[in-house]
Structure prediction request, 180 residues.
Amino acid sequence: MVEKALKGWARAFAILAALGVVVMLWAIVADVGVRNITRGSLPGMVEIGETMVVVVIFLGMMQAGVSGEHITITLLTSRLSTKVRRTLQTFAWIVSAIILGWMTWATTLRAVSSFEGQESRFGILSWPIWPARIVIAVGIVSMLFAAIWNVVRLLRGRPPMGEAAHSIEAQIEHELRAAS
Prediction:
């Protein structure tokens, strides 16, 4: 039940992150189009692009954590026994959870402060910064939940989320190589 909720939450955030890419794309296209016609930039497009980068990265982070798409280097661990590999994975996810917990605390305090002060950036336009700071905190706390759940899975003797899918893919690839 917890895993299903986490995966649903991650999927919703991944959709929002994908929409962020679309918004960023259209902001760039609009800015380039206006620049080619008028020789001037379209006000606010840089700010939209910067904000969408935050949305894409921080709302996409949890999907990577629950699907096993985060960066892993298996050069060493793939050669270890399952028990040793699981021990190292548990350690890595615990360290990740600790760091993400600290980051959650720090970014949440900063987001609250930014919201209370209605922090904004002044350029051609006054652009609010506090929504992006909230997105950062939400994205990090979401990844924290994924890290904690992966620790729970590993302590129960199960692989972290997403690993089973990669194992199947690796097995199929290995079998295809052996057949050719």
